[in-house]
Amino acid sequence: MGCCHADFALTEGSDRGFTVGMPTFTFGPGVLAESGANAAELGLRRVALFTDRGLAGGEHVAKVKDSLAAAKIDVAVYDEVSIEPTDASLQAAASFAREARADGYVSVGGGSVMDTCKAANLYATQPAEFMTYVNAPIGAGRRVPGPVKPHIACPTTSGTGSETTGIAIFTLASINAKTGIISRRLTPTVALVDPDVTRTLPANVVASTGFDCMSHSLEAMTARLYPRRLNRAQGIERPVSQGANPFSDALALQALDAAGRFLVRAVRDAGDIEARTEMMYAAMLSGIAFNASGCHLPHGLSYAVSGLIRDWHVDGYPAGRSLVPHGMAVVLNNPSVWRVTASAHPERHLRCAQALGADTHGAAAGDAGEVLAGRIVQLMRAAGMPNGLAALGFGDADLDALATGAEPQYRVIKNAPVDVDRDAIKRLFHGALRYW
Ligand SMILES: NC(=O)c1ccc[n+]([C@@H]2O[C@H](COP(=O)([O-])OP(=O)(O)OC[C@H]3O[C@@H](n4cnc5c(N)ncnc54)[C@H](O)[C@@H]3O)[C@@H](O)[C@H]2O)c1
Ligand SMILES: [Fe+2]
Fold first, then answer.
1. What are the angstrom distances between the C-alpha of 82 and each of 37, 54, 195, 239, 420?
2. Ligand with minimal distance to 84 CA
3. Are residues 119 and 176 in the same domain?
4. Range of the domain at 387
């Protein structure tokens, strides 16, 4: 264990332990066909299956349905999940869940589907007014008082890691920004992580979700170290995300190594089974890592970008609505953030850069931010990402609105290794406008 994890005495009142939660996971090609057996093993007889319209008629959902049918499990299908869910779409899903009278849940889809399924399960099993469980200070941040029903999560994208997390993210219309619900109780019971699903992924989805995965690990590695965070709730009430810890470090570095080698290959060639499989595994590792450590600035800032985007459309995502894919919003802030946070832990930023494949030979502590930012810019260009927030239509005139949009993200922003105020946030957005 690195010395930084043993110095808990440094901050009075800090936590001396960390807790890592995750589902029982199965990884491998074809494992979606194990969903029926898993449901039966959990004692389920009738499940509510969540997916989105784009996937509902496709082969991945069919494989899960066939497996459930073979295990003689009744299925009620909900395919109206909204891509990038909202409070309204989660509540619609919860109404369905209440009426479905299922004794368990199966989700087949990306982060949008898995998060919707978590929320539907929560509100159907532990009913409450919607804002009750939403993160404070936006919502009441109340603890979930008891268990929810079993959930088998089957991810079909390679990025969010939501199959491993106790987190459900959505856009709250009243503030036009993303927030979430976090509870260990939301962690899926079983995750079936089948890299076969990546064959049908459009390149843009592989790119955005791949950068989401990369950023989860970078944020896990550079988050405030858990012994230096004042986690007031300890023991059984310890928060899901507690700051960087040795377990999240190990998984994050392994995932960064994969992202550095395989992300661009996976985007460029749908037939590159090795690259797509490695990214699917990396996404799962990153999910376990950031769930325990928490995210920080790149995600916090991205939520303002997602909320304020106007007239932006990306192939592979639903048409007819302006939408910046989550991973794209996250990576566009990345280089700007690392240039600032590196001063807090230069050696950690350099380890990340090295894991991603940068040449760190001879790099001094003062170079860490630039070396990491430079490697990410290389990957962004190779994977066809836009050149910063300016490419999405943002400019200097939007910095105030962006900073205001990021303010509700205090929960994640305070997990950054450096303290940032409103002016610092504006500078971070300014630094993210253009990279090349
Ligand atoms: N809960 C968490 O821990 C967590 C972590 C990160 C992100 N998120 C959230 O997840 C959401 C984003 O999820 P996402 O990036 O996985 O994408 P998504 O679920 O929004 O799906 C994106 C698009 O890809 C399509 N798609 C999904 N799988 C496919 C496949 N195998 N083949 C073809 N098309 C496919 C979908 O139909 C959709 O059009 C955001 O709301 C984000 O905030 C949650
Ligand atoms: Fe994310």
1. 28, 10, 23, 28, 33
2. 1
3. yes
4. 3-17+204-431
